[in-house]
């Protein structure tokens, strides 16, 4: 299964420019891959103080256009995350759109990043999310969720064989980005597809380096530091092969951990 990671340059607060650029890149990617993944809050960037005025609902222009691309290209689009308004609350939320343009799954960021005060602008999600894509069970997480291995373990126990992680991760923490994505893949023996952005906000640079990591921790595809579409192949059989080669799941002792 071919995956396209859209590592776009985000302009904080410039929704029109971001939407136009992101949709163009998503359309190009969907012409060449079965699954397209966008980064975190790619229409707004980290203009958190303006979230209330910039948030959309699920019938808004961004997801309407994403649905049209998915239908026309017959692709699944993990629409990064968006500032979405639901029942009077605003979430940092991922919507997965299937090849028929319908919503396949939604996931709101579970762990809000207190260092930037996200909890002042977003409501935290309270559910895990799994869905099927191309016959493969998939899970969702967003950016800061990467630092919480319990979520990745739970998704894998629920059956996920690939976990998609839209992000807006800074250059200053690029080492943890590399280490944690590979660790989450290796310790769970599952694929991790982590899609980051580039650009800057108030002097903070975002590092790119989008990654598709195999269940053994090998990096299959990686982005650089500039805007690009990164392609990689996911082989569902690799999960079973990794678990046969290193029997971590068989050797677990959950009766001691809990």
Protein described:
The structure is a single chain. With 258 residues, the chain is α/β, with parallel strands linked by helices. The chain has one domain: Nitrilase/N-carbamoyl-D-aminoacid amidohydrolase, CATH 3.60.110.10. Helices cover 29% and strands 29% of the residues. It has helices spanning 15-30, 51-54, 61-73, 149-157, 174-188, 237-245, 248-251, 254-257; strands at residues 2-7, 9-11, 35-37, 76-78, 82-86, 89-97, 103-108, 130-133, 136-140, 162-166, 191-195, 198-201, 204-207, 211-213, 219-222, 228-233. Strands 1, 3, 4, 5, 6, 7 and 16 form a seven-stranded mixed sheet that branches. The chain has a six-stranded mixed sheet with strand order 8-9-10-11-14-15, with helices on one face. The chain has a three-stranded mixed sheet with strand order 2-12-13. It is globular and about 50 Å long.
Topology (SSEs and partners):
Blueprint: E1 2-7, E2 9-11, H1 15-30, E3 35-37, H2 51-54, H3 61-73, E4 76-78, E5 82-86, E6 89-97, E7 103-108, E8 130-133, E9 136-140, H4 149-157, E10 162-166, H5 174-188, E11 191-195, E12 198-201, E13 204-207, E14 211-213, E15 219-222, E16 228-233, H6 237-245, H7 248-251, H8 254-257
Helix pairs in contact: 1-3
